[in-house]
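Lecture notes, part 5. Sequence design as translation. It can be helpful to think of inverse folding as translation between two languages: the language of shapes and the language of residues. The source text, in structure tokens, appears below.
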């Protein structure tokens, strides 16, 4: 979860009421299915495929791709969509510093980005894993305590509900202004989970397949509670600012500020500081993971694989640090537009990964007859469909849906039309599959 959990989602609920909570429902279903079908299988399959460390690495070994086309194209997809995704994190961090310290947006941009870049630059994967644990604790604390304080400030739950209804009864309507296509589009956010490199890489890094069921329980409990908290913050915020219109200036300009404004108004400044650091925690936890995955794509999949096969570990670490800085600077450039919205940037990148990688990952773990050309076709069709649909077609349908469907069809059709996969590929798949079912 990134800054959109504390800004984008509460902002959407604050502006449009409960109808926007379909996103949260879709994400919960998608994440649970991802844990169920992908997590354990990916952990075992990456081990059988030369202990692959990155998604391009896994694709390359899974399909014995000597041409390196899979590695190059998947690394390109990672770089393009992650740079957009990183920009959403930079925007969220900038909004936090802008709102909390009254900084101009252009300065807040650099301060927020620097906070994350520094520890990724110094600490790498372990630093990101440890800080994620602390950050997740801060986020759940912030999202569970804030709705309670809104209720205390307004009296009781009955008063809150009456105020929201008086403001606009349609706030309670889950179907408010939504067509069938719009509801499917919001639920389809869940499809994105199957293709997110920064999430999949955590499955690859699991201690063993035996840790997956426990991880799933912890992860899903945390996720359901934080999403419920985010929806509650946005929804109860409607009541608070309807009751206190004199304090609603900032949220009427930008609904994504609702969480930060409520915290600043309702809490002692010292406590507010700790809770607001939950926003920074959300931004840092995801931005750091994205920077790390993008950097490893450039370092492992371009630099080491194609330019310097025998590069030393120290050299790779320094190249990786250089790549972190480069990607961060491009993301800052994209985020420099003060009109940028966190949720808008996230939705584009989420769809890009979901459609380009989701079907390839899912089918590669479930179907032994999938071929290299099938994987390449799926990636290409998924990524191109998302961009073309977003820019030229639209029709009110979230671009991940046509992208995911067309990519899946491309994988199956191209795999069936081409030559059978090599016996060594099938044998390795069967061994990994047997290991997964035995574990």
């Amino acid at each position: 979860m990134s800054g959109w959990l504390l800004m984008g989602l509460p902002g959407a609920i604050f502006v449009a009421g409960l109808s926007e909570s379909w996103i949260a429902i879709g994400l919960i279903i998608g994440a649970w299915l991802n844990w169920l079908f992908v997590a354990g299988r990916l952990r075992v399959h990456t081990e059988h495929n030369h202990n692959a460390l990155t998604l391009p690495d896994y694709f390359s070994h899974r399909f014995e791709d000597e041409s390196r086309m899979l590695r190059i194209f998947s690394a390109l997809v990672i770089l393009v969509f992650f740079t957009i995704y990183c920009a959403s994190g930079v925007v969220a961090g900038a909004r936090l510093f802008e709102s909390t310290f009254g900084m101009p947006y252009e300065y807040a941009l650099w301060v927020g980005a620097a906070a994350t870049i520094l520890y990724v630059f110094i600490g790498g994967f372990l630093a990101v894993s440890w800080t994620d644990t602390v950050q997740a604790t801060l986020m759940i604390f912030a999202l569970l305590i804030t709705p309670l304080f809104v209720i205390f400030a307004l009296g009781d739950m009955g008063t809150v509900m009456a105020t929201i209804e008086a403001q606009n009864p349609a706030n309670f309507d889950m179907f408010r202004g939504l067509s069938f296509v719009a509801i499917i589009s919001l639920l389809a956010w869940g499809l994105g989970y199957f293709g997110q490199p920064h999430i999949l890489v955590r499955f690859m890094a699991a201690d063993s397949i035996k840790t997956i069921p426990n991880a799933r329980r912890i992860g899903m409990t945390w996720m359901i509670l934080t999403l419920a908290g985010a929806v509650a913050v946005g929804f109860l915020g409607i009541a608070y600012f309807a009751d206190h219109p004199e304090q609603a200036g900032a949220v009427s300009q930008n609904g994504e500020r609702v969480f930060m404004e409520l915290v600043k108004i309702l809490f002692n400044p010292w406590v507010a500081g700790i809770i607001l650091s939950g926003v920074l925690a959300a931004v840092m936890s995801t931005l750091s993971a994205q920077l790390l995955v993008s950097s490893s794509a450039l370092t492992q999949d371009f630099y080491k694989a194609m330019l310097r096969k025998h590069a030393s570990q120290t050299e790779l670490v320094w190249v990786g640090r250089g790549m972190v800085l480069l990607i961060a600077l491009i993301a800052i450039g994209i985020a420099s537009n003060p009109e940028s919205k966190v949720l808008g940037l996230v939705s584009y990148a989420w769809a890009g990964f979901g459609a380009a990688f989701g079907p390839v990952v899912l089918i590669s773990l479930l179907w032994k007859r999938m071929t290299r050309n099938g994987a390449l076709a799926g990636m290409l069709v998924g990524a191109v469909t998302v961009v073309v649909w977003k820019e030229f077609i639209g029709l009110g349908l979230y671009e991940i849906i046509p992208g995911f469907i067309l990519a899946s069809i491309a994988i199956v059709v191209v795999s069936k039309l081409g030559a059978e996969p090599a016996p060594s590929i099938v044998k390795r798949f069967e061994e990994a599959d047997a290991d997964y079912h035995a574990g």
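The translated text above is only one of many valid answers, since several sequences can fold into similar shapes. The mean pLDDT is 86.
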